[in-house]
Specification:
345 residues, alpha+beta, Jelly Rolls, Phage tail protein beta-alpha-beta fold, twelve-stranded mixed sheet, 10 helices, elongated
């Protein structure tokens, strides 16, 4: 931004919007001015709205008032929020003390300026959805597996009873895993891609990865590429950098990272409606099955919840899980209606 622009870009956002409008009316912007103007627009959606308000005020008042009222029009614009910029600015309408040959030229210029302003409004209006971060919540229902393609072409697969909040901004792409499990095949883009799970943030580095929000921890596995795992907001701490084939558990309370010796094929078994578990707590196994079934597994005591299991079963076959647990001498299993109760012996 050159010194003249820097000098005039003060005051409120509304003032700056009118100042930029007046500077644009001086003709084609230089490369420096154009970059400064675009940077100002991208800084905040409020900047875009301020500029659109200045354009709209110019259009409405300019059409309703004769050229002889140009002083009043410019006064209204300045009163709406701008001091006269120190940069060279052409008045909104030519003064009356001009030769008779000027009004026709002035009228043509005014209509050309209005047409240009209208085109700019359309362009900015079409771009507003990209400047303003788009946020939406996407979910898979109970027992449902869902495949999605985000606006940036990232492919997402949601496990049953899972939900994410997606925010596509100008400078970044953020996904919050609200519950359950999701895998991401991240599309190349200049914007960073980040998945938030509680206080954890998983930053993509060109990756296919899986994130599971669990009872005591968060499981993160990388199929290809790399991710970084961070904790905290203002005082951030990098916990791990994971390459392809790595799977870890991150404790939800302490942030402690525990590596898992789990193949990627097992990590993504849920996409084929299987629940695979390797040295897993029973309460985590039960939660995985409960996402898929009307019949729910209830763990009745802490001792049973903490016992560890390994196996692989069809996600929608709760009878198979019931039989699997009944064969284990550590458990007492009872089925009452739509509930399977599991106690420790």
């Amino acid at each position: 931004m050159n010194p003249d622009i820097t000098d005039c870009m003060d005051g409120s956002v509304a003032e700056q919007g009118v100042q930029w409008f007046l500077i644009n009316r001086d003709g084609a912007l230089s490369d420096v001015q154009r970059r400064a103007f675009l940077a100002w627009l991208r800084r905040s959606p409020e900047h875009v709205r301020a500029y659109l308000r200045a354009l709209d005020l110019h259009r409405q008042v300019g059409e309703a008032m004769p050229a002889a009222s140009s002083d009043l029009l410019e006064g209204m614009l300045m009163e709406a929020g701008a001091r006269r910029p120190t940069a060279k600015v052409v008045p909104l309408f030519a003064r009356n003390a001009v030769s008779n040959a000027v009004p026709a030229r002035r009228g043509r210029r005014r209509w050309a300026a209005l047409a240009a302003a209208a085109c700019l409004v359309l362009v900015l209006g079409a771009s507003l959805s990209r400047l303003w971060p788009q946020e939406q919540v996407l979910a898979a229902g109970h027992g449902e597996l869902r495949e999605l393609v985000l606006a940036d072409r990232t492919e997402v697969r949601l496990n049953a009873d899972s939900a994410i909040r997606v925010r596509m901004g100008w400078l970044d792409r953020r996904v919050e895993l609200l519950r359950g499990e999701a895998s991401f095949d991240v599309a190349p883009d200049r914007r960073a891609f980040e998945v938030q799970v509680g206080e954890l943030r998983v930053r993509d580095i060109g990756t296919v990865f899986d994130v599971s929000r669990r009872l005591q921890n968060t499981r993160i596995g990388v199929v290809s590429g790399e991710v970084e795992v961070w904790r905290g907001d203002s005082d951030q701490q990098r916990l791990a950098r994971l390459v392809a084939g790595r799977v870890v558990l991150v404790d939800n309370d302490t942030g402690a990272v525990q590596p898992l010796d789990m193949p990627a094929s097992m990590l993504l078994d849920w996409q084929h409606r299987k629940v695979s578990f390797l040295d897993e707590r029973l309460d985590e196994v039960a939660a995985a099955f409960n996402r898929h079934n009307r019949v729910q597994v209830v763990i009745e005591d802490d001792a049973a919840a903490a016992m560890r299991l390994s196996g692989s079963l069809d996600a929608d076959r709760i009878v198979a899980l019931q039989a699997f647990l009944a064969r284990d001498p550590r458990f007492k299993v009872q089925r009452r209606g739509d509930t399977v109760h599991v106690h420790s012996r």
